[in-house]
């Protein structure tokens, strides 16, 4: 079970990176053993070679998203068929080594996803309507987009009301820097009767600075 605080999760990520780096140090040895016992394919079958993926750099935010889980050297290069080995023991080593790498990458993906969730939750727990509306107005002004145009597109029935889920998804689709947890807090402010509908004209009025004193609690 993963910890529910950011510092502990970041420590787990750092520990896991160190573990992966230590595993990478054994790569040359495993490559040497497996390559020596690998059955050479016919020269007519050219296999596409892709560069070795580098070991994740400590502190990098892109080591999981930008590097393939097939980053285990010769063994991980994409091939049209499974490599063949003259020795069953070497085949066993190859399979186990590949499995170790896949488990390592999956573990790191889980840790990063969990960290992202915790940061999103922390931001939502400290949600400030005033801060959110200022950021949203600045974002829309930068895009030079009209708020009324945005919400009229969501208002399919032309009755001034937008379904709650469509309201949340529509703002997220603008690429505004927010999260579903934050958007839930925003929607809760304007879906007072829990009817699942947002009065978008009321929402636009609430975004104006002179409306600040009237903002929902």
From TrEMBL:
Pfam families to which the protein is assigned, alphabetical: EF-hand_7
Domain EF-hand: 142-177, 178-213
GO CC term (a single one): membrane
GO biological process: cytoplasmic microtubule organization; intermediate filament cytoskeleton organization; wound healing
InterPro entries from the UniProt entry: EF-hand-dom_pair (IPR011992), EF_hand_dom (IPR002048), Plakin (IPR043197)
GO molecular function: calcium ion binding; structural molecule activity
Region (Disordered): 38-82
Protein name per Swiss-Prot or TrEMBL: EF-hand domain-containing protein
Organism this protein belongs to: Photinus pyralis (Common eastern firefly)
